[in-house]
Specification:
By secondary structure, the protein is mostly helical. It folds into 2 domains: 59 residues; 34 residues, no CATH class. It is 82% helix and 0% strand. The radius of gyration is 26 Å and the shape is flat.
Length: 93
């Protein structure tokens, strides 16, 4: 007797999809019924966006502006990583 694996995989996929739907509905209903929480999440997201924008504006990409090739960037990062770890092992010299 040969067991039909495609129907059992379809059933398990259907069950997993139902569970995922329940989880999504749980969070959607929770956010929908929030009062103060919605405002707090909006403030948090706005602060993150502003923080990232300020970082991008005032701190340009150091590796992109100072090195022209990927190999130069890799060499610089590797040299700085190994230098800082050897300095820590030698007592900060």
């Amino acid at each position: 007797m040969v067991k039909n694996t495609s129907s059992s995989s379809n059933i398990s996929f259907h069950r997993a999809r139902q569970k995922l739907g329940k989880v999504v509905n749980f969070y959607v209903d929770g956010f929908r019924s929030m009062g103060t929480g919605k405002t707090l999440w909006k403030i948090i997201i706005l602060k993150i966006i502003l923080f990232v924008a300020i970082l991008k504006l005032f701190f340009p990409d150091y590796l992109q502006t100072n090195f022209s090739t990927d190999q130069q960037r890799v060499d610089h990062v590797l040299a700085n990583i190994t230098r800082s770890s050897t300095c820590q092992l030698q007592g900060g010299k």
